[in-house]
Amino acid sequence: MIPLKDNIPTRRFPVLTVALIAINVFVFVFLQHGGHIGLGAPNDNNLVRWGLIPYEVTHPGKHCDLEPDGTVACEGQPGVSGHAPSQPNTWITLISSIFMHGGFLHIAGNMLFLWIFGNNIEDSMSRWRFALFYMIGGLVANFAQIAVGPDSTAPGIGASGAIAAVLGGYALLYPRARVVTAVILIFFITLLDLPALVVLGAWFALQLLDAALNSPLGGGVAYFAHIGGFAFGLLFIKLFANHVNTEYDRVNRLPVY
Question: How many domains does the chain have?
Fold first, then answer.
């Protein structure tokens, strides 16, 4: 299922949502390609340097580097000698990784979700609260992924953990919002107008299923980061949302006389 739009108008222009989208696109197009502007696969060296590698977090002071054969080797691993080249501080990568993506479809999908659901979450709270909510959600998602794969050397990147927090918050605040959704059935595509709780509940259920069937980074997707981010949004949105649109579903209610 691919959400296309919801039916909740924002009461103010979503400045931070637009800014986050712009920052993500700028990083992907101008910074991730090793000094070359592009929309294809990013430079692997940049992914290793600025992406989140769980091994570096759980082994403080140890760094990783990209080998000529494309594998990632880390200081302190069996059979690995020498030292990795100078690397950014490991704790910085907890944040930098949130603004990186692995390809055009990766960033396009994430930014679509951020635009559809992020503008209403931003509208539900002050802007500084939204910035804090988004970043904490991304950090919680990163630590959730580290917890299930502490020795992983695969660089984790993507805004999906932070966006998952937005989805969790949206599911709790606006479950009856209507979301126009493209449903793909083999060779057929149909548009359905579904409750947000159905769309986001199905998305979360899919993350749980994939996490159960795959390794911690199954198919290159950090499912546990998605689960951790969504859980954070669901559990803590009420601590941040101080301006909720309580009349969002008025158009869906039956008149009472």
Answer: 1
Give the C-alpha distances (Å, rounded to integers) separating 134 from 54, 129, 141, 151, 170: 21, 9, 11, 26, 13
Which residue is associated with the tokens 């008149």?
255
Q: How many residues does the chain have?
A: 257
Cα 61 to Cα 56, 89, 171, 203: the distances in Å are 7, 9, 40, 37
Position 257 in a domain: no
Which is nearest to 70 in space by CA: 47, 88, 87?
Answer: 47
Q: Is the pTM of this model over 0.70?
A: yes
Alpha-carbon gap, residue 50 to 169, rounded angstroms: 28
Residue 249: pLDDT band (50, 70, 90) is: confident
3-state secondary structure 162-176: HHHHHHHHHHHHCCC
Q: Considering the domain boundaries, does residue 254 fall inside one?
A: no
Residue numbers of the domain that contains 31: 2-249
Which residues partner with 240 through β-bridges?
none
